[in-house]
Amino acid sequence: MNIKPLKETTFLEAVAAAIQHEKDYFEFYMNTYEKLPPGDTKELFERLAEEVDDHIKFITELYEQAEGSELPNLKQLTAIHKFHDSTLQKLMNKVERTIAGPGSKDAHEALELAIREAENSVSFYEKLANKFEDVNIKSLFTKLKDYSQNYQSLLETELNGLDQSGSGQGTFFGTNKRKKWLRQSLNRKKLRLRKNRRLLQNPLLQLQLQRPLQLKL
C-alpha cells in the first residue's frame, strides 16, 4: 500500500492521530499512577491523566468549529480511512516509544521518563505546526505543543522538588501551580454539575437522554 506524503495529511487524519496520541498519554499516566507508592508524584500523574479529557474535548471542538459538523465516529471510519496507517500516525508512534514500556514504580525514574516524553512531544508538535499550511492543522499542533510544554514544566518542578527534599516526596501538593490546577478542576466539575442539573430539569432533554448514546471515541 502506498503511503501518501506527510504534507497531504487531511485535517481529519490529523485530528484522529492527535486523539489517539492523547489516549496513549492517558494510558501511560494512569499506568504510572497505579504503580507509584502514595505521595505527591503519584497525585501529579493522576492529575495529568485527568487533563487528557480536556485535551480531547479541545480537539473535538476545534474540528467541529472548522468543519461545521460533529466529529464522526473515528472507530467506524478507521476501517475506511486506515488512520493507524497514516504517515502522521506512524511518526507519532515513533515519538511514543519512550512511554511504550511497562512504566516504573520509582518516582524519580517515572518523572524522568515523562519529562523526556514531554520534551519529545514539544519538539515534534513544533515541527509539525511548521510543516503544514492548513490553518486548522497548525492550530491543532500548536495547542498540543502548549499542552506538552505545560506538562513538562509541572513534571520538572516535581522532579526538582524530589531531588531537593531527598525524601522521595515531591512538591506538587505545595506548589501554587497545583493550587491553581485544583481550582480549575473544581470549577470544571461545578460547571458539569450545573449542566447536568439543567438537563434533568428539561423534559425534552430527558427524552433525548433516554435514547441510545453513540460514542465518538
UniProtKB/TrEMBL annotation:
Coiled coil: 108-135
Residues in Rubrerythrin diiron-binding domain copies: 13-145
Tree of life domain: Bacteria
Pfam family, one: Rubrerythrin
Transmembrane region(s): none
GO-annotated molecular function: metal ion binding; oxidoreductase activity
Coiled coil in keyword set: yes
Keyword RNA-binding belongs to the record: no
SUPFAM superfamilies hit by this protein: Ferritin-like
Keywords: Coiled coil
Protein name: Rubrerythrin
Species this chain originates from: Leptospira borgpetersenii serovar Pomona str. 200901868
Highest classification ranks of the organism: Bacteria, Pseudomonadati, Spirochaetota, Spirochaetia, Leptospirales
